[in-house]
Design a protein that fits this description.
365 residues, alpha+beta, five-stranded antiparallel beta sheet, 5 strands, 54% helix
Length: 365
C-alpha cells in the first residue's frame, strides 16, 4: 500500500505537473496523444511521484488512459480535473485498483480449475499489463499468477487432446501467456522480470517456436547459482535441448535445475518429469519408471502427478522393466530395496480411473 504521508493529493499535484509547460499546452498535448493509438483501456491508480521541485514526493489518484513512450497519459479522478502527462522517471511507486473476487480465485485454485482462475483474473490484470514497468507496482505478481494459470490450463488442454487432434485452443492459451510474461519481463525493477522472461521461453517452446525460445533464452543469460531464476533457466534450457533432439544434453541441463534450485515448487516437479521423459527417450525404462513413480507419489492430486502416471503406464506397458537393470536406480538414488515393478503396478491399479458407465454390483441375498 502507498502511504499518504508523502504530500498532496489529486488536482493539486496534477496542476503542479502541468504548470511548468503551461496547463493549456499540456491539455492540448495529452488530448492529441489520446486521439492517436496511445489510448489504452482506463485503469485507476495511485502514483507516488517526484514533485517538480525534486525535493519532495507527492501522492496523486488518477485514471491511467494510455502511454506515449515513457510518458503516462492520465486524468485526475476528481470531477473536472484536467488531463496530464506524467513522465515515468518521476514515478516512484504505483498502486493499481485491481478488483476481482479473491475467494473465487482461491476456490478455483483449490480445485485446480486453471481455466476458472484465468477467467476471473484476466479481465482485471490485463488492464495493468502496459504499466508493469512502473516501479514498485502491485500488478506484477497477479500478472505472473495469470501467466502461470494460462500455461497450466494450456498444458492440461494439450495433454487431454486426442492424438492428431486440433490443439488450437491450447496454442492460443500459450500465446496469451507469452504476452503476459513479455509484459512482466519489462519490470526491470523486480527480480521477477527474469523469471517472466524464462517462463515466456517455456511457453514459446510449448507452441513449437523453438527458434524464438532460443533467442529469448540467450537474451536472459545464465544466472549465478543461488539466483532466483537459476532453476527456471536450466529447466528452460533443458526443454529446448530435448525439443532439438539433444536428449543427453537435456538430461545434463535438467540435473542442474533439480540439484541446485533448492527444490523450487515451480521447477522441481517439472524438472523431475523432464528427467523421466529424457530417460524414456533414451530407452532407459527402469530410470524412467522410478522417476515417474516418485513424481506421482510426491505430488499426488496435481497435474504433475497425472502426467507422471500417464508416463508410468506407458513405460510399464512395454514390459521393458521386467529385465534386470545393471545398476538398479532404487539402490543408487532412492536408497530403497523395494520391488519397483510391484510398487509401480500397485500405484497404477490404485489410481485407475473409475469407468463412467460402470454399474454398481448388486449384493446377492
Amino acid at each position: 500500500m502507498i502511504p499518504r504521508q508523502h504530500g498532496l493529493l489529486g488536482p493539486m499535484l496534477l496542476a503542479c505537473l502541468c504548470a511548468a509547460a503551461g496547463a493549456a499546452h499540456a491539455q492540448t498535448t495529452v488530448a492529441n496523444a489520446l486521439s492517436r493509438a496511445n489510448r489504452l483501456p482506463p485503469i485507476p491508480a495511485r502514483l507516488l511521484v517526484q514533485a517538480p521541485d525534486a525535493e519532495s514526493e507527492l501522492l496523486v489518484e488518477v485514471t491511467l488512459l494510455g502511454r506515449e513512450g515513457d510518458a503516462l497519459l492520465a486524468q485526475g479522478r476528481t470531477a473536472g480535473t484536467p488531463f496530464s502527462r506524467i513522465e515515468k522517471s518521476r514515478v516512484r511507486r504505483c498502486e493499481f485498483t485491481l478488483e476481482y473476487d479473491l475467494s473465487a480465485v482461491a476456490q478455483a485454485l483449490q480445485k485446480s480449475d486453471w481455466g476458472a482462475a484465468v477467467r476471473i483474473l484476466s479481465p482485471v490484470v490485463r488492464l495493468a499489463l502496459p504499466y508493469l514497468d512502473l516501479p514498485e507496482n502491485n500488478g506484477l505478481e497477479p500478472a505472473m499468477d495469470l501467466g502461470m494459470y494460462m500455461v497450466a490450463s494450456a498444458d492440461r488442454e494439450k495433454r487431454g487432446a486426442a492424438p492428431n487432434a486440433d490443439r488450437a485452443r491450447a496454442l492460443k492459451q500459450y500465446a496469451a501467456a507469452c504476452e503476459v510474461f513479455r509484459q512482466a519481463a519489462r519490470a526491470q525493477w523486480s527480480p521477477l522480470a527474469s523469471l517472466a522472461a524464462l517462463k515466456r521461453c517455456r511457453a514459446l517452446l510449448a507452441q513449437g517456436l523453438a527458434d524464438k525460445a532460443s533467442e529469448a533464452l540467450e537474451e536472459v543469460g545464465e544466472p549465478d547459482p543461488g539466483d532466483l531464476a537459476y532453476g527456471h533457466y536450466w529447466l528452460a534450457r533443458a526443454e529446448g535441448l530435448r525439443h532439438a533432439g539433444k536428449t543427453r544434453e537435456a538430461l545434463e541441463a535438467v540435473v542442474k535445475s533439480v540439484v541446485f534450485a533448492d527444490q523450487d515448487v515451480e521447477t522441481f516437479p517439472s524438472a523431475l518429469l523432464l528427467s523421466a521423459h529424457c530417460y524414456r527417450d533414451l530407452k532407459n525404462a527402469h530410470r524412467a519408471r522410478d522417476l515417474y513413480y516418485e513424481v506421482a507419489v510426491l505430488f499426488v492430486g496435481t497435474d504433475w502427478a497425472d502426467e507422471a502416471l500417464e508416463g508410468l503406464r506407458a513405460v510399464m506397458a512395454g514390459n521393458q522393466t521386467l529385465q534386470p537393470e545393471k545398476t538398479p536406480l532404487e539402490n543408487v538414488f532412492f536408497n530403497v530395496a523395494d520391488d519397483m515393478n510391484e510398487l509401480a503396478a500397485e500405484l497404477i491399479e490404485a489410481r485407475a480411473p473409475t469407468p463412467t458407465n460402470a454399474v454398481p454390483e448388486t449384493k446377492k441375498e
